[in-house]
Here is the input.
Amino acid sequence: VSLSCTCPLKMAEQTERAYQKQKGVFQNRKSVFLGSKSKKEQRFVRSVGLGFKTPKEAIEGTYIDKKCPFTGNISIRGRILTGMVRSMKMKRTVVIRRDYLHYIKKYNRFEKRHKNLSAHISPCFRDVEVGDLVVIGQCRPLSKTVRFNVLKVQKGKKGKKQFQKF
Here is the structure.
């Protein structure tokens, strides 16, 4: 009797020192000799709710990311914000620029201000570039500076430092 491993992971996903696996998936299922059934890869995928669709890449992909809101153990709660991608130099993290207007009572006018936020971006969003508009949702702290997760990506105009209100 020979047992074959039906591991749903390919070795390309194993780039870290620790073995990468999804929490809700049992990988050591015994093979059954009842016929030639297709070995469907098991994958834990969920909807984050709030009207956001789960990306197709999250459902069909093979990546492992425990901080992904679609395939990991992260719940989105609190604020939903929009911003423009400013930098993508970190691994699975983007810097987002949020522009807003601040009212100066003395001069009866507004001044332009901005804030930078770090947000975790799941590998299911493949073709994100600097200048794209993203919708981010608040979650538990993922690291020292990251408290948001990217939920949706909209292609934006090329440009690094534009003020979005105008």
User: Anything to note?
Assistant: The first helix runs from residue 56 to 60.
